[in-house]
Design a protein that fits this description.
233 residues; 6-stranded mixed beta sheet
Length: 233
C-alpha cells in the first residue's frame, strides 16, 4: 500500500473517531458535572455487565478477588485499514478493609494497522487482579502488553474458569459492544491519567495514587458505583 493510501486511511480513522468521541481529548472540563456523568455511566456499565447471563458469575468471582477495576462506559473504535480507539474511564481500588475507594479519571488510546474496517462503541470493564497491574496503572502512563498483561475475561455459566490457577494475567477485560468492527485488540493500548479531570472533580491537585490508594479525597458521588461493584467475596 502506498504512503498516500496509508494517510487517507489514517484520515478516515481519525475522522470517524473524532465524530464518535468529541470528549476524548485532554481539553479542560467545564464543570465537575461532566466527571459525575462519567461516574454515573460507569455505574450503569457495571450494573449491566453484572446482569449479563454469560458474564454474571465470572465477573462476580473476579471482582471478589480484584485489586482494582478500570471502567470505560464508552470506548469508541473506528478504522479503515488504519484504526484508532479511545475513551474516558474511571479507576477504583480496594482498600485493606475490602471497601472500594474513590475514582480517578483515565483515558485509553491506541492506533493499529491491519485488516480492519468499521466503527464500534463498547462498554468495557477491566478487572485488575495483581498489585503489579494496579501499580502500573498508578503511573502517569501504562501500555497493555508491555507494562501489564491483559486477557479476555472468562465467560459462561460456571466460575471454574475464573478460579483456575492458569489465569495469570494482570488484567481481565469484559466488553459489551454495539456496532461492527473487524480487527484490532486492547494489546498495545495506552492508559493515561486524566489529571485535569481529577482536579476538576475533586477541586484539588491530587495524584492518581493519592486518590485511589491513599484516599486523600472523598467522593460521595461515587457511592452508587462502589455499591454496584459489591463487597469482597
Amino acid at each position: 500500500m502506498s504512503l498516500s493510501s496509508h494517510l487517507r486511511g489514517l484520515g478516515v480513522a481519525a475522522a470517524l473517531l473524532l465524530f464518535f468521541l468529541p470528549g476524548c481529548g485532554d481539553r479542560p472540563a467545564s464543570a465537575a458535572s461532566e466527571q459525575q456523568d462519567l461516574v454515573d455511566h460507569a455505574t450503569s456499565t457495571v450494573q449491566i455487565l453484572r446482569r449479563e447471563e454469560n458474564f454474571r458469575e465470572p465477573i462476580a468471582s473476579l471482582l471478589g478477588r480484584a485489586k482494582a477495576v478500570l471502567i470505560f462506559p464508552s470506548l469508541f473504535k473506528a478504522g479503515f485499514i488504519l484504526g484508532a480507539q479511545g475513551g474516558s474511564g474511571v479507576l477504583l481500588a480496594r482498600g485493606a478493609d475490602g471497601s472500594w475507594g474513590p475514582p480517578a479519571f483515565y483515558t485509553l488510546g491506541s492506533g493499529s494497522v491491519g485488516l480492519q474496517i468499521g466503527a464500534q462503541a463498547s462498554e468495557v470493564l477491566f478487572v485488575i487482579m495483581t498489585d503489579g497491574g494496579l501499580n502500573k496503572l498508578l503511573n502517569n502512563s501504562m501500555k497493555f502488553g508491555a507494562d501489564a498483561s491483559v486477557a479476555v475475561g472468562p465467560i459462561g455459566g460456571g466460575i471454574e474458569a475464573a478460579t483456575t490457577a492458569n489465569m495469570r494475567a494482570d488484567i481481565y477485560a469484559y466488553s459489551r459492544a454495539q456496532g461492527l468492527f473487524v480487527g484490532g485488540a486492547f494489546e498495545g493500548s495506552v492508559i493515561n491519567v486524566r489529571e485535569e479531570w481529577n482536579r476538576a472533580y475533586y477541586g484539588v491537585d491530587a495524584t492518581a495514587r493519592g486518590i485511589v490508594v491513599e484516599r486523600r479525597v472523598q467522593s460521595p458521588g461515587a457511592a452508587e458505583l462502589q455499591a454496584a461493584l459489591g463487597s469482597r467475596g
